[in-house]
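HUMAN: Ready with one sample?

ASSISTANT:
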Amino acid sequence: MQGISFKEDHISQIPALQLLQKLGYTYLTPDEALAMRGGKTSNVLLEDVLRSQLRRINSIRVNRNKEELFSEQNIENGVLAMRNIPMEGGYLSGNEAVYNLLTLGKAFEQSIDGDKKSYTMRFIDWERPERNVFHVTEEFAVTRTGMADTYRPDIVLFVNGIPLVVIECKRPDIKGALDQAISQHLRNQKDDGIRGLYLYSALLLSIGNSYGAYATTGTPAKFWTKWKEMFVTEKEEAEYIQQLDCLVNMPLDGRQKAHLFSDRFRYVRAYFDAMEQENVLPTEQDRYLFGLCRPERLLDLIHNFTIYDGGIKKLARYQQYFTVKEITERVKTLENGKRRGGVVWHTQGSGKSLTMVLLAQAIAQAKEILNPRIVMVTDRTDLDSQITNTFKKCGREVMNATTGTHLVELLDSKTDAIITTVINKFETAVKRMKQPLSDPNIFILIDEAHRSQYKEMAIKMDKVLPNACKIAFTGTPLMKKEKNTANTFGGIIRPVYTVRQAVEDGAVVPLLYEGRIAPQHVHEGPIDDFFTKVCEGLNEYQTTDLKKKYSRTDFVNQTDQRVYSIAWNISEHFRDNWQGTKFKAMLVTPRKAIAVLYKKYLDEIGLVSSEALITAPDMREGEESSYGDTSEEVKAYWKKMMDEHGTPKKYQDNLISRFKNQEQPEIMIVVDKLLTGFDEPKIVVMYLDRKLNGHTLLQAVARVNRVCDGKEFGYIIDYYGVLKELDEALELYSNYDEEEQAAFRETMESIDTEIAKLPQKYSYLWDLFKSIPNKRDLEAYAQSLREEDRRQEFYERLTAYASCLKIALSTRDFHAQTPEEEIKRYKDDLNMFVKLRSAVQLRYSDTIDYKQYEGQIQKLINRHVESGAVKPITELVNIFDTEAFEQEVEKIVGTAAKADTIASRTSKFITENMDTDPVFYKKFSQLLKETIAAYEQGRIDELEYLKRVLKYKEDILAHTDNELPEELQQNNAAKAYYGLALETYQRIFDDAQVDLKKLALETAMTFDEIINRTLIVDGSVLVDWQQKSDIIGRMKIELEDYLIDDVKRKYGLDFSFDDMDTIIDGCVDVAKLWIK
């Protein structure tokens, strides 16, 4: 036989059987395996092997000097217990019963020396793999349920006669080979399949020469996953490669070879003998078998990395396995009386909660750690039952700390229970502990939901739990400013698992991004008038303050028309793509008032169902400010929700339950809630109308990356414009290396220098008030700050002190070296001075109370800022397709980042430089126009826009069109009239013998003359004509007369009144924007 054979036996099944024998499995021919099953294809246990092993690995320890064997009756009872699995709860329930037998054993009564007691019999020796026996067979025929025929899995692996691994092999040249192999496993597990075999399975494999995937019993196709080895050092990787290469190229011994090729493979022995003459390269199939099926690894995976979660069986993914192994080794040894913790970075959706549970279990079972006390700090209350069940097999109780006091009691009690708690109870406990607990066998596992509190929490824990091992979990990369935080826990724990790895592995779905915009246009006149009047009563500082707030893009983006336009776009988009499927959406908004407004408009439009999940009206959320009154709409909505649900908790729980389990609502509208930690795989799209960045942005978009059947991608539809922020956040996915460690040490040195200045800055601040005899007299403080220069000095000294204290409070050395009462004094005095600053700012009008303006300005903006139809501004692009995504980023933000004065950053630039150009104060609406123009023009044709802004900023809204007639080049309004007319003419008169471009030019020029003549009187535009129906009506009649007389009749065209109205209405709308 010459060349490569692609027969399944040759290229997959026989090589697998060869390697498995080299790994320690004894090969059985199909006939031998059937004989060991009593000749019954309905029986899947090798009962004689099981019986023999029960005798071998079990004994009863009566006392220190005496051991007894289990009776033959009990050995038989053990075989019967494994054979007769209860199935009342269903197939997966039976599988869990098998797992409990395997891991917990089963107790049988036996009388020894007249003393009858119960003793536990084990089915597998987990601690000593070499005491178990491993068999492999192929073409394992099993009778189908209720049928006379059989199904034949390609390979089955047995441990002590129990079939724990089922493998399907496929040739690599078949299209969709891996999917076919997985499909066979799923077929085999159906009601009419061979569930009798899969009842015992712990690991399922689908393999071929160049691919592989693994899962466990009951795993849907979507959740089959890849296995990869992970290495902490290059040396480890090199040793692994060498070991596998040697194993693959090591020949079977003569007996093994003779046995393998003695039956149905006899015909192909010469082919494999020839292959042995030269070395071969290890295949992906080899890597899967070696990585998952070598005896010690297989037993480790089954015993320590398998759990049942809500009736679903889960087997660890490779990153979970290697991370738990690495941490377990890391914490086994003491360094200076402590165990080294750290931060685990595994991307969202990769199973961090399961990793926490598996790690806690590994620590609990580690023989090197005596009586470990494990505290799991997490918000997921649904973890409790999962944790409780997981720890049954290692004999550990799980206790939930119901209060902070209860947690202190549990820690003091030296209980060996796994303790679960939430963050606020944990912090309470830390505060209430009077004496430090110095036990190095206390482990604190902290979920990422409280990432912002890592540093402060670590410092507090150091005081009361000085030797505890702290391990934090995060799903997003640590930003540069957070790297010091990682070091306070013990550094980044490798291996990390990034979102790109997760996408490649299929652990999460790729995310597709599309930017959209609702164009807005400003009517300047009324806004000018309003702000001229308002600013007359304000000083320069107050004028600046007011204009800064209301020229922001954020404020403009909250107009009623814009929200309605986006609500309509969302309704159509969801209806057209996902309505009627199981999939759901989230809509992220900046404030409660906008969330309620979206709910109102989505209901009015009526195409989709929605709910708004917000906090109580008196709680700040999202971008809400402390000076803003809660809108009446929010109060009314909250009252309605409380009337319907009773309490805030029931309101939240009920909405989430409906969202997860019922067809409606289809869209959940949120501000802050559910952006982190919320896991619902059916969310397929996030509509984003709020500025987010960094960690928060990555957390939010991860709500749509969970794997779900039928879900190929998650979608981010961005109406706000966060493409650059998303690009920057993705860039910050970085590792932690030795150079950064050195940088950290340098940073710590500079921090120490800064902290040393704290007493000086504190005294310098108090020096301003040393002449005040009664330090409790607020009026004396206020009067001492009557002069503006002195107030400015106060503000500057307070800022310097606050900044220095913040740095100090973030370091453990400061807490260790500074008495508690001194720290309290620093903090209390800062709090007092901050309140004093607020009081004197209001007293001397250094700032402005926005409450009296907000309602008026919002109404003004709603009336005089119009929003057009939403339109896309980027291609739909996979954010993990680096090249394609960067191309879209370059289109939108690449040039803007270089110019730093255009696109979505124009608003920020103007605000920051407002006081350097007073002309902006006199024309507030121009600031507003710049904000909207940056949002619209800069994000569409960035390169052309940049050239024009750099060359002549006064022409920022100019555009050119080479196809336009020369007569229109300098007339922006007429350009638009021409385009509208030509579009309609070409649509309805394309067969007419008329020069349509010439006709459109004539129409545009005539319309321009009629509109200008109507609206401009004595050289001035009629004030607020856009709101005066009599003027607009008179103008429309004259425009219609022209179209009837000079187009329809003159050229004999079939011109309907509806088509005329299309042109007239469009041109009048354009005039509203240009003629002011």
Remarks:
- The first helix runs from residue 8 to 22.
- The first strand starts at residue 26 and ends at 28.
- The CA atoms of residues 106 and 612 lie 51 Å apart.
- Residues 733-750, 893-959 have pLDDT under 50 and may be disordered.
